Amino acid sequence: MLVAGALVVPSRALAQPAEPRFTWPLSPSPQVTRTFDAPANPYGPGHRGVDLAAAPGQQVLAAGPGVVVFAGQVAGVGVVSIDHDGGLRTTYEPMTPLVPVGAQVYRGQPVGMVNPGHPGCPVAACLHWGVRRGEEYLSPLALIQTESVVRLKPWDSPGDGAGATQGPPLAEPP
Asked: Do residues 118 and 94 make contact, with C-beta atoms less than 8 angstroms apart?
């Protein structure tokens, strides 16, 4: 006797992948010029975000909904930081802020304009985009990934090659 199992999933769940809560902070989707490199410890070397190719003056967009907690200069560089649900904070630099501290922003809302001069940028301008949860730096690219691929190996029962598994015989009712 062959026994087969089925997984019932609502068709709506199969038809549309979940829309991410976050999006690219530049439009159209930019080229990543430098990737995230997590530091081994809080003061160690690393790259605490990603650098994105941009044009000088290009609009910087809030990657997700949140509240602006910083908009100003740090060591002469324009920076905007936004707190999001789940303890996440995104940071964007170098830029000219267009939003004040305390402003509620929505995903895709312009929050500033890219300034040239980011160190190590191989193009006319780069936006450095960082994210952290508490004190832990994370890769911002993880915020915008919408798809994942799951590959299952076939499970053949010995000798049948049909992909089904043979279970124990079912007991007859008394």
From this structure: yes
Residues in a beta bridge with 82: 68, 90
- pLDDT at residue number 55: 97
Distances (CA, A) of 112 to 10, 71, 156: 41, 9, 57
Retrieve residue 71's tokens.
Answer: 């908009």
Residue 39: per-residue pLDDT: 85
Q: How far apart are CA 104 and CA 107, in angstroms?
A: 10
DSSP class of 27: S
Distance CA 88, CA 57 (A): 26
Q: Is 144 left (phi over 0), alpha (psi -120 to 50) or beta?
A: alpha
- Contacts of residue 151, defined as CB under 8 A and 6 or more positions apart, other chains included, come to none
Number of H helices, E strands in the chain: 2, 13
Give the residues of the chain that fall short of pLDDT 70: 1-19, 146-174
